[in-house]
Amino acid sequence: MRRINIYLLLTGLLMCLFSCKDNPSRISLAGEWEFALDSTDTGINENWAGQNFKNTIQLPGTTDDAGYGTPNKLAPAIQKPQVLHLTRKNSYVGPAWYSKEVDIPSGWKEKAIELKLERVIWQTSVWVDGKQVEGRQESLVAPHLYDLTEQLTPGRHKITIRVDNRKRYDITAGDMAHAYTNQTQIMWNGIIGEIALTAKDAVSIRNLQAYPDFKNKQVRITCQVNNTGSATTGTLTADIKATGPATQIQQRVTLQPGENLIDLICPVKDDIQVWNEFSPNLYTLRASIETDPYKDSQEIKFGFRDLGKNGPALLLNDQKIFLRGTLECCIFPLTGYPPMEHEGWEKVFTTAREWGLNHLRFHSWCPPEAAFEVADSLGFYLQVELPLWSTNLKEDERAPYLYAEADRILEEYGNHPSFCLFSLGNELQYDFGFLGSLLSYVKEKDPRHLYTTTSFTFERGHGNWPEAGDDFFITQWTKKGWVRGQGVFNAESPRFDKDYSASVEGMDVPLVTHEIGQYAVYPDLKEIGKYTGVLDPLNFKGVKEDLEKKGLAGKADDYLMATGKLAALLYKEEIERAMKTPGISGFQLLDLHDFPGQGTALVGLLNAFWESKGVTEAATFRQSCAPVTPLARFTKATYTSGEPFEAAIEVVNYSDKAIENAVIGWKLTDRDGQAVAQGEFPARSLPVGENSPAGEIRCPLNQITEAKELTLSATLKGSDYTNEWKIWVYPASLAVDKGDVIVTDRFATAEKALQEGKKVLFNPPYESLKGLEGKFVPVFWSPVHFPKQAGTMGLLLDPAHPAFAHFPTDNHTDWQWWRLTTQSKTLCIDSLYTEVTPLIECVDNFANNRRLTNLFETNCLNGKLVVCSMDLLREQEKNPEKKQLLYSIIEYMKSGKFNPAQHTSPAVIGTFLTSGQTSSREKPESIY
Q1: pLDDT in tens, 486-539
Q2: Mean pLDDT of all residues in 370-389
Q3: Helix, coil or strand: residue 337
Q4: DSSP string covering 654-718
Q5: Cis amide bond preceding 594, omega within 30
Q6: How far is CA 640 from the centre of its chain?
Q7: Cα separation of 20 and 48, whole Å?
Q8: Is the dihedral angle over the CA atoms 175, 598, 177, 525 positive or is it negative?
Q9: pTM for this prediction
Q10: Cβ(862)–Cβ(756) under 8 Å?
């Protein structure tokens, strides 16, 4: 008898197995599809839906992937359009048709059948067996869904999809919004992600949403139960589970024909496991409906994270947090579209975490489901935006589309705990009445997120203070001043005791600084070989060809490293100023990685593939970008040995718990690692969300007898949290012995001395020179996108050259060069580079690649000449770095090592001089 029972059980299991195989609930449509381009847009009128197509294509995928469209015929060049962005190898914008036959199982009879196209640009229409299905879909942010219940009876059917990637709505000026652009993501045609049919019983669950309440230990659950039959009753069961036993609640429901909305509260008895960046705990909610004879269920994941604010403080589960973020602008240069699987997003988020970040802003687009799932698992805080970057926004035909896209974002991705912030778009302008109404709508619809009207705006009367409905505020300045370095670092001498407290005084919502950085780095030409996908780096190739033509190709790596290191030190100071400011709740870099569009804006320390350029290490960057960060406040970068070095050390703690008995050690060391001074502060508590003072340093420097670069480090003992800063110390009693060197700021004096065979250091007033404005900061964003700027990218020099033997420096710009570069002119020596030898090169932007300098040597007439276009002679007592560099140059000129190889004439030197003086300086905002 027992054998018979076992036999019957096995038989039943096998029958169930085969039944499930013959009648799956989901049919993937991935694979080969018939395909045709419809460039003349005649397919609908000519009934293409009833025809077979000769070509084939793999879906998911795009026409770019398959090599369809117009082949690129442009050659590499530093000109438009090549230099604007990466170039599609094959371009197509217009309708395209995709067709595939599918067998519908017999078990799908009388089931509700849905077609899912996970992501499309921009509009789709569907036909089954040549007959059009009612309705069209046009979302850029969410799956396109079609009800094919009436069309797909058991048996073989032909599904035809028309995808039209032409612009449907004016969502951006210049097609720059990253949901629809060729600047980063391309205007691809195709279908990516999941392409599938699913079958549901007559009673089924849709749109399951969880609204966790951390304070009250409960979850509000809402869902939609569709009933395609007659009225009936059933039981809805909700199971909530983390790691322990599930919490369950049941409710009897009466289901009318059509859509039935369910809303219930489920208390959670066990201790709540919160979700945050340190403990990204996820709960599973499974909702099941059972009627006679139907069953269905849906499962989602969510996290307990109550996001809120207390004045300018950003709170997560009642604890202050600080956003350390960067932008993600749909930059995926192998495909031109975002990853739809976990693997691609794991690379993005794990790299961002390695570099100390906890936040990503999706600029004018919304990522797919896979991005949220990975962010959920790693504890990343995401800002999502509508596909919108408009300067002429108002309530017109775009309004219904934008409201619908907002609905789709909130319903499709709202359960994800990583979805924290929602902005209506980037730098929106014009009708703030319309924007206010849209903001009120989304805030009322879904309380799980914080909302803001726009990620900054240039609209007059707006943008310098929050709008009335903003939960948080993103800006680059307030009505009281700048909150990012663009308006500070070139205009004000370096001070490391400053923050933006004055600019944010009175702010009553959390403030996040907008797109800080944008410091251009010279193109890494080694990157060219990485572009093996659908995009051709004609911009990079154009730069390479230009350097080769000018004989500068060997300089490319040096340009990359020098400009990259300058960008890295500026990003460090950007971040630290934000973290020092109590009224700031986060920053959004633009960008940790490169932006290959908008005129080739290579502003990253990582390339477009999220790979390091080698200009700095993740661990070094993370010193000033971590949950726990030691910070130092001191007044300047350069000192004399006659004054003390004074600094205040503090520690910002945005970890998940207070740190008790914290001991902060500090050390001041020279380049050889020898300690000049050191100590530690008494143990203290470091509460969460506070900048806690650790102590003050006062260190005499009178033991310094020669110019030195010193490094101040501060470390939380027993941890990896450390940070460091450079200062430069010069002897106070330095005497400049000119010896046989003539130092003059007058051309006539210099020419006479050269005629007499003397050595001359010619240092004319920089205001009287023809050249580019000397700047400390590099190109902002892109010299192509913002051409109205001086446009150099920092210094490149050999620190081992004897001219710098008494002036400690690296091969790139650092803070001791601030006064020297801002009080200078940059000279172009393209026409005489064979006649002079630069001791310092000023790296030009890639759009020009000129030979630039502010310090060079040559022979002239009967003498030897050094020309310096940095001011060395004025205000030496206030700026000891001027006197020290002067001393170092003169000592070199007095030595036997001063032996210029080139020769020029006084007439050539005279071409750099003007008849008068010019002193106008570029304002930070003038580039716009």
Answers
A1: 889 999 999 999 999 999 999 999 999 999 999 999 999 999 999 999 999 999
A2: 98
A3: coil
A4: -SSS-EEEE-EEEEEE-TTS-EEEEEEPPPEEE-TTEEEEEEEEEE--TT--S-EEEEEEEEETT
A5: no
A6: 40
A7: 35
A8: positive
A9: 0.95
A10: yes
